[in-house]
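Hypothesis: this fold can be encoded by more than one sequence.
Test: take the structure tokens below, design a sequence, compare later.
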């Protein structure tokens, strides 16, 4: 009898869980992504052409829109950290942080920047060195190392951190049980949050999430295949690349299934140790120590000195289309990643103040990013400038960045070991990033999730599979870097409006919260006086 009652309770609980699933948010993106995958697979050339036309409309015609939002969000982050809002604790007023600063920083950094940070750290200076805009500004030595620092530092992390405190406030202070983009807009949308407006925002958010994941996996995964091919002396086909992606997905899901947040924390720490171990080795034993330090210091100063000019440059005469090709793409790239990473950062920031979250995020996130680009980028640039190896000519000959990065690593001492470390670190980056993305996406499948409640493992598995379909389709379509960028630029356009709405909503709700706290204190003091 007891077993029967227990079974009934379990069935009732499962049925209740099924009722809580938001099938519209779950199935519409699934159908859309499957349709896109079919189109990319069977009509790759036509798909890339259409993407290019749409990218031109958003990135070229409305490019200033992305630049204004990026600079505005950065200034807002500084305002929040320095104002009365910075004192707000993401939780109860006397609550302490759940994670140590190091554990928190590791999880934040690895969820916010996937394996593409290694790909771009090695190679991005080459992309700028071969761009006509660098010749307009001056020399490769003066400017090729500046733009990687600009495109990966303050404005990108500004997007993450402003939204992270907004989501953290929503989850830990207001205790809202709808972990969705639309819920963060409730202070200004009101009842519309539960209507068509809210549904549309959530659908846009999920599509942007899928687009951001597709771009990241499609850009960086072939480097892993190239390294494997070099280590084992074998030709690597597209099929092998796709197998690699599937294996990573499988491993990530299994790890997440068994260990949850604790597992993510451990994996993030391992990733950070490998990452900084690699950087230390290249800096100390690569033979370019002085050049790396001095050029990095100079590039950082030039970036800070010219920050406003770089943030507002639009190339109105279209002499090189540099901002359209790079700055606008990057701001769009960070916007689509803002659907997942800030939710995760907000979740793990419980007990920290808004000020601690923003300043700590800039310190750990931006600091680690800058160190990566300064060391790995300036190592190979030092070889180029000294005339030891002509990486630019190699790139101009075949345009293959993946093979070029392997060539760069082969100039280092203990090159095979370095390749193994890079490969393992990329897998670890992918794992921690994918855990946070899958967890965030899974939350979208539920109408409500109580504080501390996690989505069902079956829903997480479904999202793991869904998140990997579009990258595989893009790889089969042999999409160019330009086409991959187009996916992010298109998806980011509507998301930019939502990001502004979330920022305004947070300011409105946070102001009300501070007034409530002040009113509560005044009421408490009045009681004391009456006593």
């Amino acid at each position: 009898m007891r077993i029967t009652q227990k079974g009934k309770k379990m069935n009732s609980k499962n049925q209740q869980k099924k009722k809580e699933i938001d099938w519209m948010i779950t199935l519409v993106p699934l159908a859309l992504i499957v349709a896109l995958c079919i189109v990319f697979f069977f009509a790759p050339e036509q798909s890339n052409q259409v993407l290019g036309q749409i990218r031109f409309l958003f990135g070229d015609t409305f490019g200033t829109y992305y630049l204004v939002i990026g600079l505005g969000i950065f200034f807002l982050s500084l305002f929040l950290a320095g104002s009365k809002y910075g004192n707000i604790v993401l939780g109860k007023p006397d609550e302490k942080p759940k994670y140590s600063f190091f554990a928190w920083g590791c999880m934040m950094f690895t969820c916010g920047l996937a394996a593409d940070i290694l790909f771009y750290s090695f190679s991005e200076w080459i992309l700028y060195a071969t761009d006509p805009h660098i010749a307009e500004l001056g020399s490769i030595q003066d400017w090729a190392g500046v733009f990687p620092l600009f495109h990966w530092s303050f404005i990108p992390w500004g997007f993450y951190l402003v939204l992270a405190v907004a989501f953290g406030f929503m989850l830990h202070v207001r205790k809202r049980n709808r972990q969705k983009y639309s819920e963060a807009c409730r202070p200004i949308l009101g009842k519309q949050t539960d209507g068509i407006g809210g549904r549309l925002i959530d659908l846009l958010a999920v599509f942007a999430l899928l687009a951001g994941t597709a771009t990241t996996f499609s850009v960086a995964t072939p480097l892993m295949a190239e390294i494997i091919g070099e280590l084992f002396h074998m030709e690597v086909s597209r099929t092998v690349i796709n197998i690699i992606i599937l294996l990573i997905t499988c491993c990530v899901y299994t790890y997440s299934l068994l260990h949850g947040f604790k597992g993510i924390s451990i994996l993030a720490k391992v990733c950070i140790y490998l990452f900084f171990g690699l950087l230390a080795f290249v800096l100390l034993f690569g033979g370019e120590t002085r050049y790396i330090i001095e050029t990095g210091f100079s590039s950082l100063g030039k970036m800070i000195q010219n920050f406003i000019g770089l943030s507002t440059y639009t190339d109105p005469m279209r002499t090189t289309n540099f901002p359209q090709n790079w700055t606008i793409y990057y701001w769009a790239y960070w916007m689509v990643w803002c659907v997942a990473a800030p939710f995760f950062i907000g979740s793990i920031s419980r007990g920290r103040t808004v000020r601690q979250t923003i300043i700590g995020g800039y310190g750990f996130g931006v600091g680690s990013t800058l160190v990566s680009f300064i060391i790995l980028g300036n190592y190979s640039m030092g070889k180029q400038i000294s005339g030891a190896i002509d990486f630019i000519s190699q790139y101009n000959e075949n345009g293959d960045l993946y093979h070029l990065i392997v060539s760069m690593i082969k100039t280092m001492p203990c090159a095979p070991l370095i390749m193994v470390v890079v490969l393992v670190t990329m897998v670890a980056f992918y794992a921690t990033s994918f855990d946070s993305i899958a967890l965030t996406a899974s939350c979208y499948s539920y109408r409500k999730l109580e504080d501390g409640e996690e989505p069902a493992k079956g829903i997480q598995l479904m999202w793991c599979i869904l998140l990997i379909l579009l990258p595989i389709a893009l790889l089969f379509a042999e999409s160019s870097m330009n086409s991959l960028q187009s996916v992010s630029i298109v998806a980011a356009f509507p998301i930019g409006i939502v990001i502004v709405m979330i920022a305004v909503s947070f300011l409105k709700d946070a102001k009300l919260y501070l007034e409530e706290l002040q009113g509560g204190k005044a009421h408490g003091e009045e009681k004391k006086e009456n006593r």
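The first helix runs from residue 2 to 20. The CA atoms of residues 86 and 206 lie 30 Å apart.
Hypothesis status: open.
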